[in-house]
Structure formats: structure tokens, C-alpha cells
């Protein structure tokens, strides 16, 4: 039987996966099988930033990395470190990086989030074998993972150390993020000098400090491209919302 002992007030909340009262999010991405998806990684990071939570990025399955993967991870790692993120490289197969990951988890309540097939359950089993969580294979045809975790479950790794194991997902929208605040969730943009216009969205406006930083290499081009894609998506959603609101009047 399950008994409700106490209900705590919400101090913070992550919309996807739906979890409250957490200290940090470990964003788990695989180097291969499934292949590294930087676009999805940035979506996750924006979601975490919008929830005002700390993000630690873990690149898993390093045992599968080939020379080209290692080169790419090195470049991506340098960009994300400059953004202020903590980076872990790991392999649940070889045990590489497991103790470093454990050190980030100690004494905290952490959400482990990422696409399906990145090795969340396998990593947790490595951290605490008694959990005996099911893990699924990655489809050879689609190179996507199969869901083995069906719901968010809070697991105790050790005293005062908890991990919320969340189902993997393939899609993630940015509801709750507005076009006016999106740049605040890209740390390297938020720290830039002022643009000519206070309302600058860093798209077509002249005198934009962010676009200048992209041109001189201070902001990674791929991060900026993802920002523009998210901005377009959010603006389309806002346009649809205000159009429907006008029809309802």
C-alpha cells in the first residue's frame, strides 16, 4: 500500500518532464545510437533555463565514439562550457565518468532528462545496481530509442540523494517561453552588450550586439541558428494565439 505522508509546496517546476521541487536537471545526450542532436539539446536547455534551474549536460555512450565524434564533442563542449554549463562525458558500459556524475548528484534532487535511447536507465543501474531498471535497445532502422520508463519515478540513490527518472521523448515544445524573453535563456546572448533597440530580437534589427558576436565568432553559429528557429516557432504560436483571441471577442 502507498500512503501520502506529507504534501510539500512547490518551490519550482519543470513542465517537461512534469516534476517539481528539484535542484538541477542532468540533460543526457548520446554520442551515437541515437546520434547527437544539438537542436534537441538546445530545446531542452531552453526549457530548463526557462524553469530557472541549473543544467548539467552529460554526453553518454562515449565508448561508441569514433574519431569524428570525439572531435565534434570537443568543439561542442568548448562552446557549452563558455555558456557556463557543466559538462560530463560518460559511458555506462565502461564506467567512464560515472563517479564524476555521482559527485554532481550527491545531496541533491535531480531530474535525468533526455531523448529516448540515450541510456538513462543503464546509467542509473550503473550508479546503483539494486535498482535493476529495464533498458531498451535502440532501433537499427530509425536509430531512436524505445521507451522503457513509462512515468516519472523518484529514485533514492543514497541518503539525501534522489533522481527523478523521466520517460524519454522525441519532441519538446517551448510553451511558456515568449519571443521577448527567449534570448534570456541563451546565456551567451543574455551577457552581450546592449543592442541599439531595447526590443531587439536579434533577427533583422540593425545595431544588434548578438549578430555582431556571431559574426566575430564570440557566439557559435549553430546556437544562433537554433535561436532563430525557436524564435520563428514561438512567434508563429503567438500570432495564432492572438488571432484566435481576436476571433473570440
CATH class of the largest domain: Alpha Beta
Number of domains: 2
Elements, N to C (H/E): EEEHEHEHEHEEHHH
Radius of gyration (Å): 19 Å
Largest sheet: 6 strands, mixed
How would you write the strand order of the largest sheet? 5-4-3-6-8-7
Looking at this protein, list some descriptive labels.
alpha/beta, 249 residues, single chain, 7 helices, globular, Rossmann fold, 6-stranded mixed β-sheet, 2 domains, two-stranded antiparallel ribbon, Ribonucleotide Reductase Protein R1, domain 1
Describe the structure in your own words.
Helix 1 (38-50) crosses helix 7 (221-248). Helix content is 34%, strand content 15%. It is globular. It folds into 2 domains: 13-165, P-loop containing nucleotide triphosphate hydrolases (Rossmann fold); 182-248, Probable gtpase engc, domain 3 (Ribonucleotide Reductase Protein R1, domain 1), CATH 1.10.40.50. It is α/β, with parallel strands linked by helices and 249 residues long. The chain has a 6-stranded mixed sheet, sandwiched between helices. It has a two-stranded antiparallel sheet with strand order 1-2. Strand 4 (54-60), helix 2 (67-82) and strand 5 (86-89) form a beta-alpha-beta unit. The chain starts with 12 loop residues before the first strand and ends with a helix. Mean pLDDT is 85; it is low at 136-147. It is built from 7 helices and 8 strands. The longest helix is centred in the C-terminal third of the chain and has 28 residues, at 221-248.
How is the topology of this model organized?
Layout: E1 13-14, E2 19-20, E3 24-30, H1 38-50, E4 54-60, H2 67-82, E5 86-89, H3 98-105, E6 109-113, H4 120-127, E7 153-158, E8 161-165, H5 187-190, H6 209-215, H7 221-248
Parallel strand pairs: 3-4, 3-6, 4-5, 6-8
Antiparallel strand pairs: 1-2, 7-8
Helix pairs in contact: 1-7
Amino acid at each position: 500500500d502507498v500512503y501520502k505522508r506529507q504534501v510539500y509546496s512547490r518551490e519550482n517546476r519543470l513542465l517537461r518532464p512534469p516534476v517539481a521541487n528539484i535542484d538541477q536537471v542532468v540533460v543526457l545526450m548520446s554520442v551515437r545510437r541515437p546520434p547527437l542532436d544539438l537542436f534537441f539539446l538546445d530545446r531542452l536547455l531552453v526549457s530548463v533555463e526557462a524553469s530557472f534551474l541549473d543544467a548539467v549536460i552529460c554526453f553518454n555512450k562515449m565508448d561508441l565514439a569514433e574519431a569524428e565524434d570525439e572531435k565534434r564533442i570537443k568543439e561542442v563542449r568548448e562552446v557549452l562550457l563558455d555558456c557556463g554549463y557543466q559538462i560530463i562525458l560518460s559511458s555506462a558500459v565502461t564506467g567512464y565518468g560515472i563517479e564524476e556524475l555521482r559527485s554532481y548528484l550527491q545531496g541533491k534532487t535531480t531530474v535525468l532528462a533526455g531523448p529516448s535511447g540515450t541510456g538513462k536507465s543503464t546509467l542509473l543501474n550503473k550508479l546503483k545496481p539494486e535498482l535493476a531498471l529495464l533498458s531498451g535497445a535502440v532501433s537499427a532502422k530509425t536509430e531512436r530509442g524505445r521507451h522503457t520508463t513509462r512515468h516519472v519515478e523518484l529514485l533514492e540513490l543514497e541518503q539525501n540523494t534522489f533522481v527523478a527518472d523521466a520517460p524519454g521523448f522525441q519532441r519538446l515544445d517551448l510553451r511558456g517561453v515568449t519571443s521577448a524573453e527567449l534570448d534570456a535563456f541563451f546565456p551567451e546572448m543574455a551577457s552581450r552588450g546592449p543592442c541599439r533597440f531595447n526590443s531587439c530580437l536579434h533577427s533583422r534589427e540593425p545595431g544588434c550586439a548578438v549578430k555582431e558576436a556571431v559574426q566575430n565568432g564570440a557566439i557559435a553559429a549553430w546556437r544562433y541558428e537554433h535561436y532563430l528557429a525557436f524564435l520563428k516557432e514561438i512567434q508563429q504560436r503567438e500570432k495564432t494565439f492572438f488571432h484566435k483571441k481576436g476571433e473570440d471577442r
